[in-house]
Amino acid sequence: xxxxxPLFRTNYRDFVRDRTALFWTxxxxxxxIGIFGIVLGRGDDGASYEVGLVIEDQxxxxxxxxxxLAGFEALALxxxxxxxxxxxxxxxxRRAVVVIPQGFGAxxxxxxxxPLQVHFDPSQQTTQQVVIxxxxxxxxxxxxxxxxxxxxxxxxxxxxxxxxxxxxxxIMPGLIAMSVMNGGVFGAxxxxxxxxxxxxxxxxATPLPAWxxxxxxxxxxxxxxxxxxxxxxxxxxxxxxxxxxxENLPALAGVTMLGGLAFVAIGFFLGAFAxxxxxFFPVAQVITFPMLFLSGIFFPLxxxxxxxxxxVSAMPLTYLGDAMRQLMVGGAxxxxxxLNLGVLTAFLVVFFGLAVRLFKxx
Amino acid sequence: xxxxxxxxxDLRKAYGDLQAVAGVSFEVADGEVFGMLGPNGAGKTTTVxxxxxxxxxxxxGVSVLGMDPxxxxxxxxxxxxxxxxxxxxxxxxxxxEVISLFGSFYEQQAETEELIALMGLEDRRNARxxxxxxxxxxxxxxxxxxxxxPRLVFxxxxxxxxxxxxxxxxxxxxxxxxxxxxxxxxxxxxMEEAERLCDRVAVMDHGRVIALDSPSAxxxxxxxxxxxxxxxxxxxxEHDLGKLAAVTSAASQGSAHSVFSSDIPRxxxxxLDLAQARGAPLEGMRVRHxxxxxxxxxxxxxxxxx
Lengths: 362, 306
Description:
The complex is a heterodimer. In chain A, 64% of the residues lie in helices and 6% in strands. Chain A contains 15 helices and 4 strands. Chain A has a 4-stranded mixed β-sheet with strand order 2-1-3-4, with helices on both faces. Mean pLDDT of chain A is 84; it is low at 156-165. Chain B is of the alpha/beta class. Chain B has 2 domains: 6-219, 3-Layer(aba) Sandwich (Rossmann fold), CATH 3.40.50; 224-289, Alpha-Beta Plaits (2-Layer Sandwich), CATH 3.30.70. In chain B, helix 3 crosses helix 4 (112-118) and helix 8 crosses helix 11. The mean pLDDT of chain B is 89. At the A-B interface, helix 1 and helix 9 of A face helix 2 and helix 3 of B.
């Protein structure tokens, strides 16, 4: 008499025999990841960025720092005079210029380190997102090379502390969060379609309890969203060369489920207002489309103007994307993990509650 | 006399200003095939869906299998079988998959393969729902109505969209239900279907039952005579025809005329005389028994397909 499994199997059959659904849930995100992976991913040679190095100090410490910087493949170093290098930066021939000022070695030895000077053009996104983090990483390495105890190499900037090294590492978790959102919200179309074709009404004439109907549907969506995420993470590693934090994968699966449930609830809520599949689609698009661009999936939140912040804060994808980025590649937190999980749970509870209240068989 | 399977007393249901069911009362006995005949919008479907527990009545008393369908919920739904109009089942599922799915909702379920055979769907067993013809899809929906082997089954216009051959096959199936002792409530707007299948028929119009009896009694009560039918494109009016010998009533719809007569040879003679005198042609002339269609036309002034 347990109808849960037969319903689950029905959802599975209905899904795998539906080419359109397969395309949107599997092929489309795979294409997306593939394109981003190929365009932005690390090739074998690795993209490298022109960085000028000006050494005005003749100490061994300055030489060590220079060697460390030269050891980073992502940096194509050119050593030169300060004025000439700054001029090259202005001409766009350098991404950044690092100046080791006179007296640096002595200051390190004395324990009162003197900051390096890093010149760059803040309007260039790649510099912000890639070169500066690489430099920071290099400075950390140099730190350890110069002394085991405390930081002696510091720089004038300390705002970017992310471990991320490339744009691809930033984009990939966002793309996966996007596909979780789409899988959840657009997954609700199956229920709208059943209502439109009066199958729900027919089911309401059987003793089938509503929880089994909804439960089997939600369970199936979760399996789809989870498999989708697994597939995309694998592709992100293989095609994009993203270095995934393996120890966080179970937590990533948990966040995928939580996010998936929250977006399924939102989809069910929207579905309660739609009489037909055709009517559901544009509504779901209007809800999901702005989130793609405003929740930090493609563009970092700190590049957005202040007036749009309240809108950004109201979007569930903001929190899912941030949580996935932190877990998957150790990205810089925008919000604390507790806040991310709390907001997603709140969306889940509120919209599932509304969806249950608004649910209609016809 | 056993207790009726269904008792309906002064049932009413309105949708806004439209009084869909306006005070309907009837009873259905155990093992009976009960028909509800009427044109679209007569209130048949609304009445049946209230009995199925799918709609809530405004007022009136309803007892089905000793329960109130509005409040008995799943206990009630376990016991009845339901076929609804215009359900487009999962288009990508196969016939046998849908039958098994619906069977899984019930403790007591018919054997899927037996049901497929009963409905004559053997060669469509593995076909997807989207590939079925209208008649096959309709037979599948009847199969789903009996998947729980119910004592009472509701069929709402089961033969819609079927060709005459498929319709006759369906009638055999429904007669099979009756032979097994099931009670069947059937709505239709095909009078031939009601005449063939139903023990009793409620004729409905504008939300009311305007006549209720066995098909033959309905005809007998309304027409003590047979009808002469013919087509004549000019010259003969209902008034003229009504004055022919032994004629009890006459009905004309355009050039198609029906003359009811208590003495066919006498009426025929005077009709031929009249036609000859007027020079009016008589085409496609035939004599037939009165039918439910005639009853409906007489009671409502409309035909069933209007």
